[in-house]
Every structure is written in C-alpha cells, then in structure tokens.
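Dear support,

I submitted the protein below through the web form. The confirmation email said the job was done, but the results page showed an empty box. After a refresh the structure appeared. I'm attaching both so you can tell me whether what I see now is the final result or a partial one.
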Amino acid sequence: MEQQRLLLTLGLLFLLYLAYGKWQEQFNPQANVPAPTQVTQPAADNSSIPESASSIPEAVTTPSAIPAETKSQVGSHIKSAKRIYVETKALKVEIDALGGDVRVLDLLEYPETNDKDSKPFRLLTDSSDKLFIAQSGFAAKRAVANNSIVTAPNHKTVYKIEKDSYQLKNGDKAIRVKLFWLSPENILFTKIYEFKPDSYDIKVIHRVENRNRLPWHGNLYQQLQRKDYKDEKQSSFIHTYTGGVIYSNEEKYEKINFSDMEDENLKRDIKGGWAAIIQHYFLAAWIPPAESTQTYYSRDLGNQLYLLGMKASKEMRVNGGESKEVVNTLYAGPKIQKHLEELAPGLELTVDYGMLTFIAKPIFWLMTVIHSVVNNWGWSIILLTLMIKLLFYKLSEASYKSMANMRKVQPRMVALKERYGDDRQKMNQAMMKMYKEEKINPLGGCLPILVQIPVFIALYWVLLESVELRQADWILWYTDLSTKDPYFILPLLMGISMFIQQKLNPAPIDPMQARIMSALPFVFTVFFAFFPSGLVLYWVVNNTLSIAQQWYITRHVVKA
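What the results page shows now:
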C-alpha cells in the first residue's frame, strides 16, 4: 500500500503546486491604471549636423549617478519625437529620436497566433498598458566640473537623424542607423544601431567626438522599462516567471522580480554579466563588454512600471580632439538556447528550467535531435517519452513486480484489517510478519517512482519553457502544442489511462484512501483540460506505455 500512498501524495502535491502559482497571481492583483493623455514633442528635423551648436537643444542632465525617472513618464505619457522605422528579415523596429529609445520591436518570424493573417508578436512597445522599451544614454556625476565638460545626451534628449526609414535588402550584411546630437560645447555624440539580417541581437554603439579643447567625461548607461501587466493569453493554470534577471560570475543567474524592485533599489557592481527582463518564450537583455564593470540598478517608478539597467562604473574620458566609442549589445527576441549561449555566458539560463536544469538540458538536447530527424514536435515528444521509458525499464519492472506481489496478498491484508480492526499496532506487526514470510518489500515500488520524479518535472519544464514548441503543430487539429486541446480529447484519454492504471494496481484497504484515489483520474482530467496539449500528450503516452509495461510484467515476468 505504500506505493499507492506515495502516488496519492505526489498527485496532490502536483495539484497544490499548480494551485500555488495561481494563488500567487491572485495574491498580488494588478492595478488598473488609467491611460494618461499622450504628449507629443516636436520632432527633430533631418538637417545636417552643424559645426556650431547654436540650434541644438541641450541635454537634460541630473546630478545623480544613475539616471532618474519620474512617475509622469509612465505609459503613453512618455514623450515622443520623430520615429525611425527599421525592417530586417527577423525584426521590425521603431526608434524614437527622443532619447534614441527602441520603442517598438516586432518579431516577424513569430506571429501572435496561428491565424494566416496574424500580426507578428510585439515584444517591445510604448503603449500605455503594455509598456516595454529599451533606453541608453550618458549620466553625469555632477552638473558642473572644473576644466572639463559633462554635458551629454540621455534618454530625454532629442537627436537629429539621417533618414526615417531603413530596410535590409537581400545581400546586405548589415545596416547602420545613426542618430546625432551636438552639445553646446561642440562635442558630437553619435548613437548607432547595427542590425543583421537574421539576428535578434543589435549592436548599440555610442561614439563621442570631442571638438573642444577641454576634456569630456561621462558614464554610459542602458536600461529596460517594463509595465507589470497580466498576459491574458496565458493559461490560468500555468505560471511562468515574468520579471528582471541579472547575471554575474559570482551569483550566476539571479531573479530580481518586480516585488523586489518595490522593496528596495538594486545597486551592485558587476564585471561583465548582463541584465534582462524576461517573459514566457521571449526576453530583452542589455549585454555590456565582458571586460567592463557596471553598476547594476533597479527602480520602482510607480503605477506598475519598473526599471532595470546598468551604468558604467568607470568614466569614459575623451580629451580634446579625440574620438572614442563604446559597443554594447541589445538582444530582443525568442529564448533560443543555442543563440543565447553564443551571446553571453549564462544567457541561455533565461530558458528557466529551475533547479533541475542539469536534467532538463540533456532532455531538451535529445528532443531537438529527434526533431531534426522527424521534423515534427508532436512525434518528437512521443519518441522522447518512449526513450525515457526504456531508460527506466528496469526500475519500473521492479516497481511493477512489487505491486504484483502486493496484489497477491491483498486478500490476506483485508483479512488482517478485519481481524485487528482499529488496533493499528497489531495490524502493522502482522503485516510485517506476512511481508517477511512472502519475501515482499513493501517499499519496493516506491524507490523507482521517486527516481523518475525529477526526470518528469524536468521534462514538464522543457515542454513548458521551450519556445520551439510555441505554435508547433502535430496532427489533425493540434496546430499549437503550447495551447490547450480545443476538443479536450487528450485530457480525456489521459483520465482514462489513469483509471486503467489504477485497476492494474492493488486497491488501498483504507476505504477513504480508496475513494480519494478513485477520484484522482477525474480531478487530473479537469486540470489537464487547460494544460498545453504538448504536456498532456507526454502524459498520455507515458501512461499508455506504463499500462503496457505493467500488463506484460504482471502477466509474464512475475508469473514466470
């Protein structure tokens, strides 16, 4: 009966785990913030950069080491100037001349839905209800400096632009989008975005050309702003992390969620690393040069808007007549592990498999190998499940043998319960004596199940987190394995398979426990009706293979 009790406990724990994710969501309800009125700033013109600075607007500088934001900048109230439109094979981007911010970014190869006329998925946007933008600029340590210049453009500065539209044509290796700002002290600042055809990583180059005799110095920063909003398209029964993440060689992968930002401001010096805001399947991340030290920071800006960024700890100094530049990378796209591994150490960990990453990664690798052969993620899940069952065949065999032996002595166990009634001590002594006589290990079926639990949980996260399964089709109406089965066929098959498994196992002698066990197939069927069909497919195949294996072992191996 121990294995029955274990299965019951595991089933209830799994349901509690899912319920906990939903409870977290309900415990911190989203505030409904009315959309403020949009304020539009006059656009910068396209005239050439002048040698004198008489007509160039000054940058707004602040005395703080880290750029400040105000609550008045939330949502669509963040001002806007002229837009630059950029299109590559992978991206469609809008860059605002105000601050040179990346305000809109569409992923052209990832539609929102499976509909033929679906719009591409919009990762970055400056809309008031789903704000998510990338910014960069220079922060001055002090407003006035002796014998040096600190005036510099930040995300409140209006840049001049060369043209307002760019398109990467066939054969082009890259395109560069340039924005200019000339300070009153005759220092030319150029912000350059470099796009490649099939790439989601964008080089962001800040060039400083000092045309003055005095030296200039400043600290470059880059940051992400995001509104914490509920994704209505995500299943209420599936909880994935949305929030900030930073990486360092010391702490490795570290979540800085929005509630952390409300509690206190992050301020930490990190060499290299990266900072990102992630969501289900996608992320945006700033990646500084690996050799540079940055002060990582976070802010709660109010009205469900949060900021995560970094500022160069060491000042950039440019003497009179000199020119220098700094190159950072902005990644905005899907969580494709192979690409992320190549960009920065640990960036692939944004595909968040949790504590079982060391198991989940090999599972994902194997699934991708299978997919490279069959070219269908549904069949890949089925073949992967079969391989895992074969891997644990001997462990399962021991478990099913133990359950078959327990089934043989079931009548004697019922008789012992009737004989001793509520005297549990005497009944347990009699049962242990019976186990010894029959050479049965009552825990023989538990260890194999316990060993397989981490593998199952790891596979659960692989199927849930992998962007490759987003909108992946299988057969018939299964056109998206990351969404629920529209006709609930797989959940029903899963419930039936659980019921059959129960009938193959010895029933609990405790009537209450037996009633609870008999209800589990129904309960799981209801829960799994809202699960991604890829996860339910795995469970159906796993249960079916378990039934076949248990039937064979019970009928042939044990009897032999």
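Response: this is the final, complete result; the empty box was a page-load delay. The longest helix spans residues 2-27.
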